[in-house]
Amino acid sequence: MNNWKLATIILAILLGISLMWSVQQRANSEKTQLKAYALEHAQLEYALKDAIESYEQGGSQKELGERLHWLSGFVVNINPAGETVAFHSFDFDYDTNLVLYEVHRKARGNQATEEDIDRLKILHQLINKFQKTALDNVERKTVDDYETEFIEFMEYYETQKEKLIK
Known about the structure:
The protein is mostly helical.
């Protein structure tokens, strides 16, 4: 009978260790997804900056429109990383795509105004702030740190949204 008790205790300990390992693996997986999500925003930030600079250095509105069209497609494919805390920033991603698409449509018709270019610059600043915040000290961040930062960014974004969405 003592052997059964010992076997049950050992099994319970192994099950507990397995459960703790599983929880840790899930947290690491979620953290990896969040890092990838932030890196996608870094790529978007760089590409948008390049599109704005090319236009300001004498590029055509049609070329700007094509680049923005590509970027709006890129944003559609940025997903809030499954069931991670990135869902907090979903509205920002949606509005980013909206602005890119609106300015793209105008630029393709050669009707983008200086106000539209200013909207792109504001969007660039917001994306830059988002990705820098998300990627700052990335190796030491926990999922809870990401969640806190996404919530803080969205609170800031809500104060700036009026300048972006017209």
